[in-house]
Write a structure and sequence with these properties.
Number of domains: 1
CATH class: Mainly Alpha
Order of helices and strands: EEHHHHHH
Distance between the termini: 63 Å
Radius of gyration: 19 Å
Number of helices: 6
CATH topology: Hypothetical Protein Ta1238, Chain: A
Mean pLDDT: 89
Shape: elongated
Oligomer: single chain
Helix content: 55-70%
CATH superfamily: Cobalamin adenosyltransferase-like
Largest sheet: 2 strands, antiparallel
Strand order of the largest sheet: 1-2
Length: 187
């Protein structure tokens, strides 16, 4: 099977179930942003050698493929097609909360705003956090006009929190100081 189909050459793509939409459709924008986040997480995982952290990121990447499939499924499918869909399970974000609590417990309290950066792995995790926030905004825009699994927004919101904690944790683990933001003084 060839990797190229040429069916998208006119600026359209197919959703699950076969309906064709513009590649600029809010649904495509949402699952595209999730796909971009997943690619950045792969980059982050490639920079990390902590087995537990690496395993957590791979699990999240799997969740994000489910989120993408969930978002690529328009409402109103017939029963036969609907039975073949996948959806992010209610409560998936609870697993992320446990990870946040686990890694945040090892960090000193945050007393200042910090700049993204520090070690290369931490910087990439900050990029992941920012892309996650963009994906969340895209899903919220989609949700304004079409039904979306409510767990998706919660999951992305919690994931961005986790990525912030992980970026801090990686810097701490590597002995790299967090870049502190110094606000401008006076006018």
């Amino acid at each position: 099977m060839k990797i190229y189909t040429k069916t998208g050459d006119g600026g359209e793509t197919g959703l699950f179930g076969g309906r064709r939409v513009s590649k600029a459709d809010p649904r495509v924008e949402a699952y595209g942003a999730v796909d971009e986040l997943n690619a950045h997480l792969g980059w982050a995982a490639a920079l990390l050698n902590e087995a537990e952290l690496h395993q957590a990121l791979r699990s999240i990447q799997s969740d994000l493929l489910t989120v993408g499939a969930d978002l690529a499924t328009p409402p109103g499918l017939d029963a036969a097609l609907a039975s073949r869909t996948v959806s992010l399970a209610a409560g998936a974000s609870v697993r992320l909360e446990a990870l946040i609590d686990r890694w945040d417990a090892e960090l000193p309290p945050l007393k200042h705003f910090i700049l993204p950066g520090g070690s290369p792995a931490s910087a990439v995790l900050h990029v992941c956090r920012a892309v996650c926030r963009r994906a969340e905004r895209a899903v919220v825009r989609l949700e304004a006009g079409s039904p979306v699994n409510p767990e998706v927004v919660v999951y992305l919101n919690r994931l961005s929190d986790l990525l912030f904690v992980l970026a801090r944790w990686v810097n701490a683990k590597r002995g790299v100081s967090e870049p502190v933001w110094s606000p401008p003084k006076g006018p």
